[in-house]
Amino acid sequence: MIPVNPDRFLQDLHSLRAIGASGVGKGVVRPAYSAADIEARDWLAQRMIDAGLTPQFDPMGSLFGLVEGPSLLMGSHSDTQPEGGWLDGALGVIAALEVARAAKESGGPPVSVVSFQDEEGRFGVTTGSAAWSGVLPAEKIGALTDPKGITLPEARAAMGDRLGGWVDPKRFTGFLEMHIEQGPLLDQTGGKIGVVEAIVGIRDRVIRFEGQQNHAGTTPMALRRDAFQALGRFNTLINERFRNVVTPATVWTIGHVSLHPNAHSVVPGKVAFSMQWRDGEAERLRRMEEIIRESAEEVAQAMGMTLAFGPMLGVEPVAMDRAMRSALAEAAEAEVPEQWRQMPSGALHDASNMARLMPAAMLFVPSIGGISHDFAEDTAEADLVSGLNVLARAVARMPASTG
Amino acid sequence: MIPVNPDRFLQDLHSLRAIGASGVGKGVVRPAYSAADIEARDWLAQRMIDAGLTPQFDPMGSLFGLVEGPSLLMGSHSDTQPEGGWLDGALGVIAALEVARAAKESGGPPVSVVSFQDEEGRFGVTTGSAAWSGVLPAEKIGALTDPKGITLPEARAAMGDRLGGWVDPKRFTGFLEMHIEQGPLLDQTGGKIGVVEAIVGIRDRVIRFEGQQNHAGTTPMALRRDAFQALGRFNTLINERFRNVVTPATVWTIGHVSLHPNAHSVVPGKVAFSMQWRDGEAERLRRMEEIIRESAEEVAQAMGMTLAFGPMLGVEPVAMDRAMRSALAEAAEAEVPEQWRQMPSGALHDASNMARLMPAAMLFVPSIGGISHDFAEDTAEADLVSGLNVLARAVARMPASTG
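Output (structure tokens, whole complex):
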């Protein structure tokens, strides 16, 4: 086990949260390329220097702290949501810093550190790591805009001459990311550690039913073609039919509903709604897609609706590296016996992109109440330290091929 | 039968639609107190004078065309929706004008005419007739505003010194209104005339479920409290349970849905939706209310939701006068044998308010495709004339007590 220093780790975490502190609980406001985000990266670069690592910003503004020669890369991101928590991303970066620093001090395995830029997606989804991995093609970067219409190059200009060249991914033997779970599973089941099996794939598409807008007083029920009722029947059908296909880890959500004209006294003629589903296995995602399509077509036919599907957003599931997972599982069992579990990650992470470049793995610690992307986000400090210790144990056990 | 003149009637209808013509089909834009609305009322006042009636505007801007002594009052309204059809309201006014004019010419029964102001509800619901009948208390009128924040007195000022005193309702022996159906029933069943049995009562309230907003990727299905799913289950339940209570004329509608935060990747924590139901019998409305309340409470309990009901909008059902209905039914059978039906009015009309002041009845003619409140609203001219003829027959048959 690498001799990490929990106090120093927690002190660094609290120092980082002071940069862009929201003043509400432990909340932080540090969106990508904001003054607070850049200040945090400058602070982190100094910490890297202090630890004997060489800081380097890549063309996106992702900050690497490099050791010489081949190394394991550890980290996450230090940008936050517009109203973010203190741990989302920051935890993985500071844990990586502590492991790399302690490894360097103790003559342990070589570990480099990264804080990716814009994981929270001001300009897309996991923008910095997506650009580095090639998931986001270089020629598309210039055209990305945030919700206010500011382009990525305009925002990035605030980083000035910090920006350098791309870091060669071949120098890394693997990528390891610790993160808060951002869900309620560990918290509600008393788990201390989650070893991620796979980052789930996502399917997301808008579905539209169009019937007939009518007066809600003068149109008999038998003559209606009510788009909300079509949505209701569709929802009932898929909930029934998914039962034969899903696992307890599969999720699906109708999170957005737009009725037209959306008035008390008008039978709604149109509805557009989002249908999103996530699972760790591509085949299960495909079977669910089939049920969705068949159910929507059945409802449209039975209720006299026209049916349209929006474009499919597809993010493929990413399995975590088997050897790295084993090292994490053994370390978790040593640190918190029987209080850990294998689980999927329902959210995307920088590790999704890293898996294209190198073996990658992830570790979760509990989120109190499952809350994240909120000033109220928190994790017990004892759980943060357990996570750090599991990393310190696992890195010492990582197979030679991955660091 | 009063010897009405169908050509003169149709010509007046087309003249009226030229005032505020939308330029799209036969559509009309003549909202209450607009320049076009006032121009139409001035045109109508001149037509009344030509017919030997005495025009009088009341304090709301409703225009009466009076004969001396006791009379039957006939009419509807000449204001329109912001994007209105040419017949909604205008038909009943011009038919009344033709019947009153023909009665006067032929020494028939005394008939007065009215065009109520703001039936379409720029400032409320059937505002002009509600004010005259006392349903809308006088002290509330000054505070009414339209969706842009203009007060009723500000808008009404455009009518200048046209406005006069209240007309004494005691001078009228009854109220008779012809209107387009604004629904598909006559059109789809080949009916030519609908004799209205009752104007339905309306119950309308907003229902809110609040569960827990969560990340749509990281929150397992078993741990969700999804407000949209609560709405879906509620909708399924009431649709099943209403079956034992409703008639083919009963209607219910979820027309407005507001999800929060309404995003693809967030399990919705809150939903507010409108629940509206209409029927001709107060007891049935009450039983439906019970089912709604019980079903919502059941869903809230089963799914861990908090439940809140908004204030109940209640409009009571209004039965049409039995003797006047009989006269209309006999006239319909004489004019279009077996091509007429008794039916409820699913929409509110000025007749709802008139029933508080005097015996009241209504007659429907078909709406092509059931379309109204739309530039595309229309009715075959032959059906308009059938309606006029039924009125002309019925007025001649009206029992002495009602004209």
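Chain A has a mean pLDDT of 96.
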